[in-house]
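idk why but the lab printer keeps eating my pages so im just putting this in chat instead. protein + pyridoxal-5'-phosphate:
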Amino acid sequence: MVKTAVILAAGMGERIRERTGDHPKGFLLLDGKPLIEHSILKLLDAGIESIIIGTGYEKEAYEELAVKYPEIECVYNADYETTGSMYTLYKLKDVIKEDFLLLESDLIYEKEALNIVISHPCENVILASKFTNSGDEVYIEADDNQYLINMSKDKQVLNHVSSELVGITKLANATFHKLCSYLEKTVKDFHKMHYEEALVSIAKEIAIFVQQESNIVWCEVDMEEHWQRAINFIYPLIKEKENVVQKVNRKILLNPGPATTTDTVKYAQIVEDICPREEAFSDVMEFVADALTAFVANLEDYTTVLFSGSGTAAVESILSSVIRDDALLIINNGAYGERMCKIASAYGLKFYNFISPADQAINLRLLETFIQNSKLKISHIAVVHCETSTGLLNDIESLGQLCEKHHLSLIVDAMSAFAAIPIDMKEMNISYLAASSNKNLQGMAGVSFVVANKEQVESLKNARRRNVYLNLYNQYAHFKATKQMQFTPPVQTLYALKQAIIETKWETIEGRYERYSKSWETLIEGITRLGMKHLVDRKNHSKIITSIIEPSHPNYNFYEMHDFFYERGITIYPGKVDKQKTFRVANIGNISSIDMEKFIDLLEEFLNELKEPNESEKI
Ligand SMILES: *Cc1c(COP(=O)(O)O)cnc(C)c1O
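predcted complex ->
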């Protein structure tokens, strides 16, 4: 185990001088404590016993810290104004005597980052993350076995970019000596060298492992924008993660929501009691509403209306509030399209049930002809984005264009697509979109919401009301005026949703869909290998949920299979297609392709037992 840490802290931090004044960057305050001190406390907590700080600019600040922490030793690089980080590191060659962790002084990171590097089996490890788009990234190029090839701030220099440098690295003492002799051998500009360059140059001789962690939360602070992001987003996220007192037993939910959540989302519900009429709670709801809008639209033209309820509440709110005297056309290619017909019929709306095959793309030409020849004037089209009953992904972009051409408004039930499949409401010409807290957002069940075009909701002001609780305009206008829902909000679910949103922002919607897609590929590869088929072909598939044709074996029974998985911590879901016998597997929530591999292994075991039901008895 490494016991020594080295922090490179000689830099002048010129790009953020306005905020730091004449203090080094490491002394920016988070909760009243310098960020370098946060780092020191985490290092000590992780078992580090000696911390060597390479100082330069305003070294006195660090020397003062060394008085408070006897574990710290400062070594001064007097040439800090003209030298690079490798030179500062070189200056430490007489005090570094063993393997060590190398850190930058302006890092804000979660404790787990240290644990990963410290407990890593390789002796030389670079911690890498997904791309942060911070504007000052060091990109990493690694080989197929995850060993370092190259690093650069300039993407063009690299053959391919695999990840981003965090600035937490474990080095063997021998590696450090190689770095030092590389610097000594370099003739030109050797004093300007950065440690990244030195690492790359010795990587040909010494294997340096790149440990890529997509979930580790961190940032570095070089500019004012970084600092704003750090205090408003990164640091709260880290605090939340570090506040989880006890891990909750993890279940793998492969049902289409509520999905597997992170422990941080679960714990975010545990807060002091609050009356939801308080301003502090309005702030939570406003944060949630704005963030949900921003995931799919711009805040000037669109708004989010929150309801207490499961997802269907949002769909019902739209249909029962926005359709006036003209007709609604519902595209029905699965159970959720069918549900919209049921709602329309219950409210006595004029509507067309446009039935389309459950496993094929909508025939847009047929649809257009239908619209042109309809007796009633159609004002709205409603469609399900990802039909959760089959996994079929409907082409909402083309439907948006069709609506534009015929001056119709498009309503999308995006329940099982929102926060995974990227959507741009303006670009796609969507007027109303319904979704909920407990699917790809990875929050708790209980919040249902409508993202709506403001102009269109405003136009409902004088519309005849068919509903009370679910009236879209009333809920919108009340929230706009008071920052309150009309009726009691699901308080704890909203706290969890706020946390889930922050985590979605950290992962990004594109990143989340990439993770989901990888799990889906693992699923499809696995079931194909086991000789099973799925209903919807790849071309029209959402990669969110998959309808799998049930095995034809006479001993097969879905409920037995369900129980087999349930006993092993995995939940699967029955099918929802009339014609074919299917069961469903969703790959949403806080799960990865590793969980999907586990599912496939167990499925193989289950199918083998089906074939030889008496085998175990014989033994
Ligand atoms: C989950 C889902 C809903 C909402 O279902 P609830 O049980 O009310 O949460 C609606 N539409 C689609 C497409 C869904 O996947």
